[in-house]
């Protein structure tokens, strides 16, 4: 009797009326896929640990935490979609803040208990299901976007290997003789950064804005920063054997550990993105420009920092001995916080991933 009642009232066939072989097949496939992914992550972690890639290992652990969070979100949405779909709200509230310009009477075509009461659903089961899929796509897109960015960064750094090898040659040691005196402006670093516009804040930012597109990191910058780092952290006789590129590579991997995760702040930004995707706000016009503006400001700021380090060399004297010695400092960064630039980069990566995920989700769902 219960089965007959279910057949007449349910839109889809329940579990007790589904063939057991179909249920077993679905469970088998899900278990196999889950075990494969779990073993893949486990062996990847062991390989990173053996290769002494501690930052990447920590990044993998963070990805595992994100997967656990996604699993909890998935379970929670599955559990609450039925009671949430039964919440009824007034029509005036339910017809506000739509992402698209829709007919005000379009909600009347959907049959649900709220319509009988003259109200609308707070959120339908299908809407929650779509949100469930989008959150999963967003997390996957963010991780893949960060991994792609890391790969591009490593490829870019390969071009620096020739500069690092050059720093160990006899010719380099001769040209950068520590006993050699030169005018600051006549050094390669000075010729690039010390000009009439260097002391003007407005001209400095304008030049640095355009410089980031064609000369973001040149050999003279790399070698000068390498020398400054070695003098600050190593003994003079250790500089020749120091591998600055290896250090930068490790620093890049440590930064990747920070940006690969989705922090609570970024989840809040995701909520704000959903809120602003409202008809009449035209967020699809101005929202994509936010990461573009931020990344251009960050790139310009980094160029300004390098130039200001050159100005500090000049302030110490018009003549330098050996290679110009740059002295980085937290005061060169916004609010004396270098980590703020990393947060902006993290934010840009997340928002770009959000845009890509939204495009992919909209394209597949359409």
Instruction: Indicate the percent of residues in helices.
Output: 55-70%
Beta fraction: under 5%
How many domains? 3
Order of helices and strands: HHHEHHEHHHEHHHHHHHEH
The average pLDDT value, as a whole number, equals 78
Instruction: State the major sheet.
Output: 2 strands, antiparallel
| Poorly predicted regions | 1-10
Question: What distance separates the N and C termini?
Answer: 40 Å
Shape: elongated
Which structural class do the helices and strands define?
mainly alpha
Order of strands side by side in the largest beta sheet?
1-2
Tell me the number of helical segments per DSSP (H or I, 4 or more residues long). Answer: 16
Rg estimate, integer Å: 29 Å
Total beta strands: 4
In terms of topology, how is this protein built?
Elements: H1 2-9, H2 20-50, H3 54-85, E1 88-89, H4 91-94, H5 113-116, E2 120-121, H6 125-158, H7 161-166, H8 170-175, E3 181-183, H9 188-193, H10 201-211, H11 219-233, H12 244-259, H13 264-276, H14 283-286, H15 289-315, E4 319-321, H16 339-365
Antiparallel strand pairs: 1-2, 3-4
Describe the structure.
Belongs to the MLO family. The protein is built from 16 helices and 4 strands. The model is unreliable at 1-10 (pLDDT under 50). Helix 2 (20-50) runs antiparallel to helix 3 and helix 3 packs parallel to helix 12 (244-259). It is 67% helix and 3% strand. The two termini are 40 Å apart. The protein is elongated, with a radius of gyration of 29 Å. The strands form 2 sheets. It has a two-stranded antiparallel sheet. A two-stranded antiparallel sheet has the order 3-4. It has 366 residues and is an all-alpha fold. It has helices at 2-9, 20-50, 54-85, 91-94, 113-116, 125-158, 161-166, 170-175, 188-193, 201-211, 219-233, 244-259, 264-276, 283-286, 289-315, 339-365, and strands at residues 88-89, 120-121, 181-183, 319-321. It folds into 3 domains: 1-52, no CATH class; 88-122, no CATH class; 146-365, no CATH class.
